[in-house]
């Protein structure tokens, strides 16, 4: 990859990050919010790989692999929390879960 394509990768990454941020801010379903977070993490991965192609000393592929592993771990923990919250509150709507109920 030569340097002439770097702005296109950065623009695509910024677009993906913006879409993910918009999803996180506007949606109220927990699963959709997690999908927005994953979209933002993928935008960061695209940046890391694009910059590593221009400078081999950055090792962007290793950073990208690390981000993917962390994202998978975060998804597993978040899914477990969502399942427990659904079991207790019987909803995945963030507005209804935000209220702390006394037992």
What does this 3D model show about the protein?
There is one protein chain. The protein is mostly helical and 103 residues long. It contains 4 helices and no strands. The protein has helices at 6-26, 30-54, 60-89, 94-97. The longest helix has 30 residues, at 60-89. The termini are far apart. The mean pLDDT is 81.
The residue ranges in which pLDDT falls below 50 over 5 or more consecutive positions are none
Alpha-beta content class: mainly alpha
Main β-sheet, in a few words? Answer: none
**End-to-end CA span:** 59 Å
Q: Write down the overall geometry.
A: elongated
Residue share in helices?
Answer: over 70%
Residue-averaged pLDDT, rounded? 81
> What is the rounded Rg?
17 Å
Total beta-strand segments = 0
Write the element-wise H/E pattern from the N-terminal end onward. Answer: HHHH
Beta fraction of the residues?
under 5%
Number of helical segments with 4 or more residues: 4
Topology diagram in text:
Layout: H1 6-26, H2 30-54, H3 60-89, H4 94-97
